[in-house]
Amino acid sequence: MNVTPRVKEILSWYEGENPGVKTNLARLLMHGKLGGTGKLVILPVDQGYEHGPARSFAPNPAAYDPHYLYQLAIDAGLSAYAAPLGSLEQGADTFAGEVPLILKVNSANSLSDSVPDQAVLGSVDDALRLGCIGIGFTIYPGSDNCFTMQEDLAELTREAKAKGLMTVVWSYPRGGKVSKKGETALDIVAYAAHMAALMGATIIKVKPPEKGVDLKDAEKSYKDIKQDTLAERISHVMQASFNNKRVVVFSGGGAKDADALVEEITQINAGGGFGSIVGRNSFQREKSEAVALLNRIVDVYKG
Amino acid sequence: MNVTPRVKEILSWYEGENPGVKTNLARLLMHGKLGGTGKLVILPVDQGYEHGPARSFAPNPAAYDPHYLYQLAIDAGLSAYAAPLGSLEQGADTFAGEVPLILKVNSANSLSDSVPDQAVLGSVDDALRLGCIGIGFTIYPGSDNCFTMQEDLAELTREAKAKGLMTVVWSYPRGGKVSKKGETALDIVAYAAHMAALMGATIIKVKPPEKGVDLKDAEKSYKDIKQDTLAERISHVMQASFNNKRVVVFSGGGAKDADALVEEITQINAGGGFGSIVGRNSFQREKSEAVALLNRIVDVYKG
Amino acid sequence: MNVTPRVKEILSWYEGENPGVKTNLARLLMHGKLGGTGKLVILPVDQGYEHGPARSFAPNPAAYDPHYLYQLAIDAGLSAYAAPLGSLEQGADTFAGEVPLILKVNSANSLSDSVPDQAVLGSVDDALRLGCIGIGFTIYPGSDNCFTMQEDLAELTREAKAKGLMTVVWSYPRGGKVSKKGETALDIVAYAAHMAALMGATIIKVKPPEKGVDLKDAEKSYKDIKQDTLAERISHVMQASFNNKRVVVFSGGGAKDADALVEEITQINAGGGFGSIVGRNSFQREKSEAVALLNRIVDVYKG
Amino acid sequence: MNVTPRVKEILSWYEGENPGVKTNLARLLMHGKLGGTGKLVILPVDQGYEHGPARSFAPNPAAYDPHYLYQLAIDAGLSAYAAPLGSLEQGADTFAGEVPLILKVNSANSLSDSVPDQAVLGSVDDALRLGCIGIGFTIYPGSDNCFTMQEDLAELTREAKAKGLMTVVWSYPRGGKVSKKGETALDIVAYAAHMAALMGATIIKVKPPEKGVDLKDAEKSYKDIKQDTLAERISHVMQASFNNKRVVVFSGGGAKDADALVEEITQINAGGGFGSIVGRNSFQREKSEAVALLNRIVDVYKG
Amino acid sequence: MNVTPRVKEILSWYEGENPGVKTNLARLLMHGKLGGTGKLVILPVDQGYEHGPARSFAPNPAAYDPHYLYQLAIDAGLSAYAAPLGSLEQGADTFAGEVPLILKVNSANSLSDSVPDQAVLGSVDDALRLGCIGIGFTIYPGSDNCFTMQEDLAELTREAKAKGLMTVVWSYPRGGKVSKKGETALDIVAYAAHMAALMGATIIKVKPPEKGVDLKDAEKSYKDIKQDTLAERISHVMQASFNNKRVVVFSGGGAKDADALVEEITQINAGGGFGSIVGRNSFQREKSEAVALLNRIVDVYKG
């Protein structure tokens, strides 16, 4: 399929990127059921490392097998599959060329109780060797480690882009002045998206913002920003992302009722969000049910 | 489109390659009008460097503009476009994601009368920066420079594959014990393909072999090898390419009558060849005529 | 002996690895009395560095001599011998080619009372120079140092695998949210195995899991996971290891009664575990007694 | 099988080598039907690159497929299989662990008519990645390029041995003061073996020496050296190889009558040669015939 | 003088070392009055850096001059002289070839009150440039810095041995779980020697062990280990050093009565220790007295 005018328009926003990065962004945006629409749905599976295997896969034990996860992304016609090194390696050969891959290069774990941090476990060369279109990286703005994490991201971004790979930045404020509840407050999420854009993220991943302003200093600035509906809040996050000129996707969060999720995604779409990253809500459901739900989500974005 | 069983079968032959190389090979084999068939047609334009601009583009002056060449490959639904650094750079942004690119990293010229050689002008990093699926390299087995050219290829191959890029090797015997006429003799072309396979070429490019054996020492070995038809000769070249388990494509050679070219390609296809690289016979024709001819070629390979 | 179908099947699971890594894994799985069965028993001797010499070797002073340890692994027909640099060097020439070697590259010690950590003392080049089939590395998920340890492992893994060496990961949660007793709880051990798999471990080494769930957040996920018998718990750990597609071995722990150890190993085998790493229970016994016990263990895995 | 006393004795001669090199030498000498005897038979297939595919494989077209060559070495129970990069890659995964591999890193071709030379196409890292026990390299003492070839070998040897790989040196005098007929004269072959030993070759490969002295200056020295029988000549070559303390193997040469080959090998064995490298005489015969002949050769060395 | 059978026997224990390291060990063991006996006495002068100049040299102001220290080692016929960079440089030219030199590459100081640590001040290249036979390095097992110190030693060891230099490891437990008094307890000293052996130390330097077990966990293991006399304790330390197969030398400690020192050394010798490192007890005495005392010590080791 030829690159659509809408995808070409999106590529045109990334004027700082070389043709390699744009080519990989085009691969992402032209793949799967949403290919060509400018919208996207990604399957991310890093919960095994972050929450442990049983919390992640016991609800649907077939998902213990990395091949299952590849097949799920393929069968649902998703835009990409993102996972840590070991998961991607267990399938990259079998499924070569079937779905765009994103190597999640850093990972947190639930055993440590230190300040929020992640270990950098994958490299740009790993991503190239596995045929990925890009790397994924989490930052925790607010954490005592946030400067190191940001510097690591900056360095990896430089290397990745020089080699034509895109970056997907999970921007999750945590710690520091950010309250637990405030992690998803509108000001914090918008701030998170903006920081990722400023760090050169090709794709920005944030959580759906909730109503409220967490930083006292920001309250005054928000008095005229509409935030009653999720669509309004999404709209503000998009505004904070180079005035709607960055691809921002929103996480699906913990497992929830299918209708509630579809409603949330309808609002994300209405607010101008580009898509969703749906992990637990897909791989923790039995496969046919997961595919059915993903189809509904895709249909929302198809409009 | 999902990777077809035929393309998966072809990927399975490349057991020495990492998933990155296989992914890029899948991108090539899944793209364009022949996508999924296991066959391919590539547009190569290195004649400007090799023969000079007027000899290359005067027959169809629109082709002086690199954008024209990109558009030709796209409009004809070809599998890939291969060209030297400057040509690719002039269009890689405009056409990002529209057609798989191969960076031809070395180039000969028609001004030198030294022993056959080429200058290495592009790099693996250039190919990554431009979003290419692989690099192309010419060797001249037989030339007094052949050892150096082979060593350069070996080094670039190691680097390219480590980064997930495929290699396309133009294997063109020239000089040394090879007579001018013998450059396309069956034994020489089969030998050329075999050497490229042994050097790890992902895609092997040779000329359509003519009847005859050029190396005296090889004559005896050819007494039982059928070579009356081009299809028979192609079949032997394929045998010499890991017993049909490498993708070998054949050049279209100098401009010629369309019917003659289609007939030649019919024979290549009948002999088990995987496709064609059609340069002068496409870009030296006016565009609609070129696309029409390329459509006929594609149809041959579609079978 | 030819590589058996079972070993070939195991190799086929490691699709992300190059032939060098697979060759070394085949060397491991084809060696010794269990050669070809897909099961394995490894002799590890890093206790001298970790616990001091007398605590390790006073029960059987012959073991102060590194040659004794090589000879024990050889005489008992074990699959491999794993030890720190100095131990391996004192015997690698004398016993060249007699038993597969694993260089344990990092080591803890009992004098430090800092947060759990290990010093990286050996290198990939050391392993190659000594003729090893792989490197061994300990991580302490949970420790405040866990991020650094994981990053060190990631880097060493990349280097080792590029050179064709396998990795054996001792995954021992310690510190952080993990209680002392919880270090061997089922959820923690399964998590430990899963993390090692995601980091690309060729062989995963964990402790036999005990009943119970240590992380509060994981309790709910375990309500349907059987854990009454050791075999059931082993079975869950294997599930967490890419759905039984990674070679996981279990430590023998502190010196204990021979019958108790054999019973434990019978359960490990019944649960689908691939083998044991038996240190103190072998080298702290007088040699003939140690070999007799190891023979019993081997017999269990022979089935 | 435990390393035999004879193999241990052979290892003890290589006092300059680290345990990695000795381990790989032990792997070679303990493998296949001759495993443990100290004798060896290697299947080398570099003729495709050197003579062209038809001259190499037309007599037995099954051999066009690299998998066939692996299987031949395995079925005949040979000690090792040696080939250039592309050939080894096409099978290294499928046959991982089944037969020791030697990566032939440089290759000549029959198209060039320059002074004798070879292109260096493989690397030590390639050998490690493919799970090889060593690298193979050809030198042409006498050629105008001999100094460069020897320096390349010296550099590769340093790197290979530091990584624990052995070296196999094809020492084939050619050009310079060496007459065409003299390439296999006793003095030249003994000189070739000696040079390889002095360059640190783990295994030396030379041609069976013929009667006669090619270098005028050497004639006087040979007046008391017996050379009437091949066994006597082999005995002198062994003497020239650190007084019988290097493993020297002899090539089988062009295809010939089976009885003649077995008789030649009987003489090689009688003279103290360690084994044979049998290429064309094995892969150019139909498989069952080839295996039968290789069995006869193996039986000679078994004594 | 030819290398004596005893020294050859000692060299044979170092099977992991290349001939360069063995040659330097032979230089050490064949030099001075104890040359050939397998015993050795080294003059170390790093106290200036560690304790300050006046505490080190005021008792014998001649020792402020580095030349004096060289001359002392030479006049007393000692086996080697060990010192930090500046000391060695001030004399290495004047006394070139007169006494084996060991460059102490790290040094503590008495001004810092941080956790026990040392600064790495010299390099392997410095040692080569100065004609040294090896480098010396201190580790403080137990210290919060112990992991870093061990990693630094591991790296320097790799470099030093690759260049043919031996290593002398001052293994001094300090901090962590080690009590102040326990620093010289039998279990701690044996542990210290064992760790140094496992890190590949050519020569191990520890303090003469005192009666007692410092680590609670080790108490049980010591119930059958004799430790009443210093000779018995030395014997255990030697056992912990690869079962007597490493050269272990003991420090003389602070200045003390000559007879007491000689008696202590008599016990060290009786227990199987290989020698002494005598610093303050030599250079803090007036020269003739120092030489007389050193002669008495040498006589003890001559036996």
From TrEMBL, chains A, B, C, D, E:
One of its GO terms (molecular function) is fructose-bisphosphate aldolase activity. NCBIfam families: PRK09250.1-1. It is an enzyme of class 4 (lyase). GO terms for biological process: glycolytic process. SMART domains: DeoC (SM01133). Belongs to the DeoC/FbaB aldolase family. FbaB subfamily. SUPFAM superfamilies: Aldolase. The lineage of its organism: Bacteria, Pseudomonadati, Pseudomonadota, Alphaproteobacteria, Hyphomicrobiales. This is fructose-bisphosphate aldolase. Its EC number is 4.1.2.13. Keywords: Lyase, Schiff base. The active site is at residues 172, 205. InterPro entries: Aldolase_TIM, DeoC/FbaB/LacD_aldolase, DeoC/FbaB_aldolase, FbaB-like. It comes from the Bacteria.
